[in-house]
Amino acid sequence: MNGFINFMENKLSGPMAKISEQKHLRSIRDGVISALPFIIIGSLFLIIAFPPLPEKWAISLWAKKHIFEILIPYRLTMYIMSLYIAYGIGYNLSKNYKMDPLSGAQLSAAAFLLTLTPQLVDKVGMVLPMGNMGGHGLFVAMCTSIFSVESLRFFKEKKITIKMPDSVPPSVARSFESLIPVAFVVIVLTLVTVVFKIDLHSLVDKAISPLVSAGDSLGGVLVPVFFITFFWIFGIHGDSIVGTVARPLWEVYLAKNAEAVAAGQTIPHVAPETFFQWFIWIGGSGATIGLVLAMLFFSKSQYTKAVGRSAIIPGIFNINEPVIFGAPIVLNPILIIPFVLTPFITATLSYFATVAGFVRPTYIMVPWTLPAPIGAYLSTGGDWRAIVLVFINIAISFFIYLPFFKVYDNKLAQEENVTTVTEKTSLTL
User: Fold this and answer.
1) Fewest CB atoms less than 10 Å from the CB: which of 63, 219, 248, 274?
2) CA-to-CA distance for 317 and 368, rounded, in angstroms?
3) Does the pLDDT at position 88 exceed 90?
4) What is the distance between the alpha carbons of residues 156 and 160, in angstroms, rounded to a whole number?
């Protein structure tokens, strides 16, 4: 066991932590996260447009009548999320390189827009198609943002810039410093999109289609589940490491699901991030809500009883650091077994329940700190069966954790009893 722990700490955790902190990956992660307010608010307008209420109710009839107007905020927020994310990636990558973040953000947004081909529409004029500005264009947004900032960095390091006198205000000087790299990026992407008529979005679609298909399979669900719990066993924040790599793909799934609902089409994807959040990570990574409930009601040890009392409220809101480090689960040979096993079982059950149509796929991003039944209900657009699935998964979590917890709790209780007897004997003497 000690050898394996040393291997994890010295050979695996260090390199994985470095990967998660790599400049480009970190900038992509932070860029995606920066757009979350727009994604969440845009999702809420989907709930208003398609209220989780019977169709004959007045509010449902009103929403159906005004659906075009209701969906305008959605189409200008979540529906064009890749534009906001491109800006966020450019900002964060420039910041990581200690360059002017605003210049990088603006150039990244412009570069992404240059991958879209304007169309002429009678009586309207030139129209910019929005279809590739949502989740569909996310990978192109990543590539163009990195290309833009790396171009800025190249020209700056090679000193191929227009240098203004020291008397010029800094904001004006920075603008002129960016003039040559901006011209370079604009010309390159204009040649690609306009002159050579290369559709970068179609090319990227073909390149990542195997990844998209694999990520939406049962294996694509279980692999991140395993690695997130595996890293947490050693006290490493598995969500950050795995999420850095997988979150862009999850965002694509979520955006495409939302677009399908808005268009009245079948929801295509099973496994956006909201699927993991509301059906697997109930109470936090490892589905530890079951463990907290076992601590609360079946503890013999004073220690586990105290941990259960302190962890139940955070656990309801999906915050489980108190139990991960308090129980602890980290490096605990007894509790790590259900910590890995439970989400595997709930993930498999939830996947097949969704694929079979027993539960509607998630397509709305709601705050992750909501209690799981509420979050699942809202993220599926008001599917009451999602609440049932959540409670089934909580029951599964509880019954898997319970026997392992009892073994661990009895061990602690015996140690406490020995300590108490020893203290009483010392006092008597």
Assistant:
1) 219
2) 8
3) yes
4) 6
